[in-house]
Amino acid sequence: MTTELQSELQKAVERRRNFAIISHPDAGKTTLTEKLLLYGGAIHEAGAVKARRAQRKATSDWMAMEQQRGISITSTVLQFEYQGCQINLLDTPGHQDFSEDTYRTLAAADNAVMLIDAAKGLEPQTRKLFEVCKMRGIPIFTFVNKLDRPGREPLELLDEIEQELGLQTYAVNWPIGMGDRFKGIFDRTQQQIHLFERSAHGSKEARNTVIDLGDSRIEQLLEQDLYYQLKNDLELLEGVGPELDLELVHQGKMTPVFFGSAMTNFGVELFLHYFLQYALKPGSHSSSVGEVAPTYPAFSGFVFKLQANMDPKHRDRVAFIRVCTGRFEKDMTVSHARTGKTVRLSRPQKLFAQERESIDVAYAGDVIGLNNPGVFAIGDTIYTGQKLEYEGIPYFSPELFAILRNPNPSKFKQFQKGVSELREEGAVQIMYSVDESKRDPILAAVGQLQFEVVQFRLQNEYGVETLLESLPYSVARWVEGGWEALDKVERLFNTTIVKDSMGRPVLLFRNEWNCHQLQEDHPELKLSAIAPVI
Ligand code: GDP
Q1: Is 269 domain-assigned?
Q2: At which positions is GTP bound (predicted)?
Q3: What Å distances lie between residue 359 and 331, 380, 478, 510, CA to CA?
Q4: Residue 270 known to bind ligand
Q5: Which mutation among 31, 53, 266 tests ligand 1's pocket best, with the greatest number of atoms within 8 A of CB?
Q6: Which of 319, 349, 383 is the endpoint of a domain?
Q7: What is this structure's pTM?
């Protein structure tokens, strides 16, 4: 390898940070994203991201569906620069549009920011997404939001994270007061207080007044009780809290915690500053030829998401690829590991919000969107040079199940084709009854929207109108050891056995309790919420 290329790759990796935000609806993800972009200079006035979304024209049936429902189905990648770093924010769909794509996006992220509403603490969607991050062992940074409103005690919030998620916490900064009495935050590294000033709804960058802890003005600026409370809290944190241990952070065992108020811009810049210092740069990935470093000279990456029909004129599909090694170049020819075919990567796109912009080069940690004329499936590896294949992306435990029926026998072929293509694309998981006489597919999803998308697309793209019949299950578990392991156990109660699209057994339960009960009755049966990657 030329030393020139080596140093170019090295530099690119050093500058890059890639992350996704995990949160529950309403915690402030859109607001925080906007404020991060504001600091990154990608937009000049907050509100622009939302406005842009609103301005978007109805360019397709697909988008019409998005607009009708006022949701965004498309997950995008936001790229911006800050303090010499290039930041890639992988935007996870996470609201009414919660779907398996939300999980898959986390498979492409090197870091996660867990956004919590100070008044609510941990909420269900955050916990689920946290589990995926934990499985991957990626660093988790916590931002406790909405300090300008009354919320729960900061110590109580840290305790909740420790007890319920099993994550050690390290408060990088500490709030002074809350709600109407929110005065600012204390930066423990610099030992400085950043005073809070309410800006005009945070549409501009916040003015930042900083004073040292020893400054005599503190007593005038802070009411006495707040000052004493800060001193007490800090003593407690220093006394019982652990030191910041970046190794533990990088293993996903300790979370640096930041406090702030995204709406008023407060604490966002400080967060960004430390995040860039502590976050993991793009790292190595396990592959069929062992761990591959991001500076490995040949280009490679994997598909983590497919998006269909963003543009009706082309009826195209876009494959989102996480670049893992080397340098991506426009129009380059790569090998496709699964099929052994050669593919030319024309029309690459970088995505900013909903706009598609053409790109020429990309490096490890970047995400590119490629036109997908049906060659790519979720988890596929593309590479140049020596053959390598990344571990695929697992199936995640669905929570909603429904039988999909095609009432019109003359549409049998289209129905089969549509179901099979949508499954390959990862729009939904498909399972089947073990009873051969029941041939209707069972759709399995993590979000209701996935069902609607499947029905909508079957009708629009394949001309098949379908009926959906809900099933009363909410938990799915794969069986380690497959049918062989299942054959060894006695009759199982309160579960239905089905098979996934690979023919592997899956147990469906009405609720967690039934699943738990079965585990207690059959400890020899190893169940998993995530399907093994094949
Ligand atoms: P998302 O659903 O997580 O994307 O949340 P949004 O960013 O849309 O925010 C949900 C609501 O919380 C909106 O009404 C925001 O204005 C509000 N919000 C977000 N951040 C803050 C904050 O720091 N303080 C206050 N008071 N409200 C906030």
Answers
A1: yes
A2: 23-30, 91-95, 145-148
A3: 10, 21, 41, 48
A4: no
A5: 31
A6: 383
A7: 0.87
Q: Judge whether 91 is annotated as a binding position.
A: yes
Please give the Cα distance from 368 to 318 (Å, whole number). 9
- Tell whether 28 is in a known binding site: yes
**Given a cut of 90, is residue 75 above it in pLDDT?**
no
Q: How confident is the model at residue 395 (pLDDT cuts 50, 70, 90)?
A: confident
Question: Is 31 touching ligand 1 by the criterion CB < 6 Å?
Answer: yes
User: Does ligand 1 lie within 6 Å of residue 265's CB atom?
Assistant: no
Residue 25 annotated in ligand binding: yes
Choice among 142-156, 180-194, 216-230, 293-307 with the minimum mean pLDDT = 216-230
Q: Are residues 254 and 359 in the same domain?
A: no
Nearest atom in ligand 1 to the alpha carbon of residue 266 is 23
In this structure, of 110-114, 199-203, 226-230, 286-290, the range with the lowest mean pLDDT score is 199-203
In whole angstroms, what is the distance from residue 219 CA to residue 224 CA? 7
CATH code, 499: 3.30.70.3280
The answer to whether residues 315 and 331 belong to one domain is yes
Query: Which residue puts its alpha carbon closest to atom 14 of ligand 1?
Result: 26
State whether 213 and 290 are in the same domain.
no
Answer yes or no: is 466 a known binding residue.
Answer: no
Using the 3D structure, point to which of 280, 308, 343 is the last residue of a domain: 280
- Mean pLDDT, range 396-414, rounded to an integer: 94
91 and 207 assigned to the same domain: yes
- What rounded mean pLDDT belongs to the chain? 86
Residue 83 and residue 126: Cα distance in Å, rounded? 29
Using a 6 Å cutoff on CB, does residue 263 contact ligand 1? yes
Q: What is the pLDDT of residue 314?
A: 53
> What totals of helices (H) and strands (E) does the chain contain, helices first?
15, 31
Q: Please tell me whether residues 90 and 184 are part of one structural domain.
A: yes
What does the pLDDT look like over 37-61, one tens digit per residue? 888 765 544 444 544 444 333 233 4
Burial of 142 (0-12, 13-18, 19+ CB in 10 A): buried
For the chain, percent of residues with pLDDT exceeding 70 = 85
Distance 503 CA to ligand 1 centre (A): 44
Ligand 1 pocket, residue 25 CB under 6 Å: yes
Name the β-bridge partners of 334. 343
From the CA of 55, how far away is ligand 1's center (Å)? 21
Cα(269) to centroid(ligand 1), Å = 17
Q: Which of 22, 23, 26, 271 to mutate to test the pocket of ligand 1 (most atoms within 8 A of CB)?
A: 26
ipTM confidence = 0.99
Structure tokens at 53: 């979304």
Cα–ligand 1 centroid distance for 341 (angstroms): 47
Closest-CA residue to 33 (of 88, 89, 83): 89
| 225 is known to lie in a ligand binding site | no
What are the pLDDT digits (tens) for 466-504? 999 999 999 999 999 999 999 999 889 999 999 999 899
Token duo for residue 229: 């409370």
- Domain containing residue 17: 13-23+73-280
46 DSSP 8-state letter: T
